[in-house]
Amino acid sequence: MNLNVNIEGLGLDKEKILQTRAEASKALDRLWSGQEDMTGWVQLPLQQDEQELEYLLNVADIIREEAELFVVVGIGGSYLGAKAAIEALPKVERGAEVKFFGINFCTDYYREIIEEIKNKRTILCVISKSGNTTEIKAAFETLKPIMEQKYKTKEEASKRIVAITDVEKGGLRKETDVNGYTNFIIQDDIGGRYSVFTPAGLLPMAVSGIDVRELLRGAKDMAQSTAWDNDGMDYAICRHLMQQEGKCIEAIEMTHSRLGYLGEWIKQLYGESEGKNGQGLWPATLTFSTDLHSMGQYIQQGRQNFFETIISIDDPGYTITIPQGDLKGRTVDELNKAMIEGVIKAHRSVGVPVAEIHLPKLDAYHYGQLLYYLETTCAITAMLAGVNPFDQPGVEAYKAEMRKILGL
Ligand code: PA5
Predict the structure, then answer these.
(1) Does ligand 1 have an atom closer than 6 angstroms to the CB of 77?
(2) Which of the residues 64, 91, 148, 226 has an alpha carbon 20 to 30 A from that of 58?
(3) Of 190, 212, 234, which residue is a domain's last?
(4) Does residue 217 form part of some domain?
(5) What is the DSSP string of 91-114?
(6) 261 with 365, same domain?
(7) Do 125 and 73 share a structural domain?
(8) Are residues 259 and 280 in the same domain?
(9) Regions in the chain scoring below 70 on pLDDT
(10) Cα torsion 84, 145, 179, 94: sign
(11) Distance from the Cα of residue 47 to its chain's centroid
(12) How far is the CA of 165 from the centre of ligand 1 (A)?
């Protein structure tokens, strides 16, 4: 495994970690057994169908050629994986501008997107596994007539709509079949927050110019890493032990501004997978050094009910040197690394447990490794706590109440 995960700073008893490995191993075996519900994502990087991937990349090429703007209508697991990757990763090809929509009920945002579609060559992509999410229905039903007006007929608009949904279930599947939209499938046994390596994540990434083959190669290598037979699960185990020690918040700290949305993706992954039966760590995300000038105070001297996980990048890929003043000759990355070291020392000095995850580089390959690693360790932590990582009755509850209020 190329990721470097350091759990030393959590200060946990090594014996306890070793003792829990057997149980974590059983959880990992269950994930790989193919017998558990909603675990299609586990072997997905190993089972990528080359023809399907080729087709997806061809569609992405056409979209990049024909569209200035690619509007993706999706929420939760049908949006965050792609959004986070597009913010984080370098683009190896010239991409279309990708905007995400259907992520709230904000009238201003509706107005902005409608105006943009009127003014730019647009392709619309609707992603919904259930085809039944209110945000998505509202957004898609609003934008479809705008596309029809812009491209004169329903048929012409339909040629510029791509759907990503279930193979047979849900309203979006029916609509797709009736209108002949170009479409891709989210496997039945993969839930939204584990769908980043399905077309829901891959198509918007490919349209933006990300090297998705490298991303998948990273995920595959991580899935096959021998570290899982050894210390690969220790971060999952430690997160479980931290809860047993009374910690209820994990402050997940990004030391690179391009990782901000990765924090949002992690929030969904951890929060929805683990927050059940009165259990789970509250995933709080921060970006350093920005948030050190606000939340840094709380971390140093506030209520000690949390631990930290710092995600950093070893090699930023290029060097900028401060040209003058007191810091003359120092590189920006040198300052970043000094900040991280200072944070760890200061926080450890008051007893805050700190874990570290290092990516060698912020490229598609290592990012693919990281996503797969976080998915697997999150599922293991949830299983150690005895909760099902793959359902989300709480999310469904709000959706049902909202539909009732609206009389739908
Ligand atoms: O993880 C999940 O399952 C949820 O966050 C869903 O992704 C989200 O609610 C969107 O659902 P859908 O893709 O069915 O519209």
Answers:
(1) yes
(2) 148
(3) 212
(4) no
(5) PSS---EEEEESSS--HHHHHHHH
(6) yes
(7) yes
(8) yes
(9) 1
(10) negative
(11) 20
(12) 11
Total domains, the chain: 2
User: Nearest to residue 284, comparing CAs of 253, 258, 239?
Assistant: 253
Look-up of token digits 């944070």: 343
Ligand 1: which of 78, 196, 375, 399 to mutate, most ligand atoms within 8 Å of CB? 78
Whether this prediction's pTM lies above 0.85 is answered by yes
Task: Name the DSSP class of 285.
Answer: E
* Distance, CA of 85 to CA of 369 (rounded, Å): 12
Residue length, the chain?
408
Could you tell me the distance, in angstroms and rounded to a whole number, from the CA of residue 145 to the centre of ligand 1?
24
Q: From the candidates 272, 308, 356, 375, give the one annotated as an active-site residue.
A: 272
Tokens read off for 153: 């007929």
In a shared domain, residues 16 and 99: no
C-alpha span between 128 and 183 (Å, rounded): 12
The SS3 call for residue 1 is coil
| CB neighbours of residue 5 within 10 Å | 18
Please check whether residue 405 lies inside any domain of the structure.
Answer: no
Identify the CA nearest to 211 among candidates 386, 10, 57.
Answer: 57
pLDDT at 1: 63
Based on the fold, state whether residues 48 and 29 are members of the same structural domain: no
Domain containing residue 9: 4-33+225-393
Tokens (6 digits) for 269: 């992954």
CATH code assigned at 377: 3.40.50.10490
Residue 126 Cβ < 6 Å to ligand 1: no
pLDDT at 387: 97
Instruction: For 63-72, write each residue's pLDDT tens digit.
Output: 999 999 999 9
pLDDT in tens, 320-353: 999 999 999 999 999 999 999 999 999 999 999 9
Is ligand 1 within 6 A of the CB of residue 133? yes
> Would you list the DSSP string of 35-103?
-STT-HHHHHHHH--HHHHHHHHHHHHHHHHH-SEEEEE--GGGTHHHHHHHHHSPPSS---EEEEESS
Asked if the structure places residue 408 within a domain, the reply is no
Answer yes or no: 347 catalytic: no
- Output the CA angle 225-227-231, nearest 5 degrees: 160
Q: Residue 408: its pLDDT value, please?
A: 87
- SS3 category, 152: coil
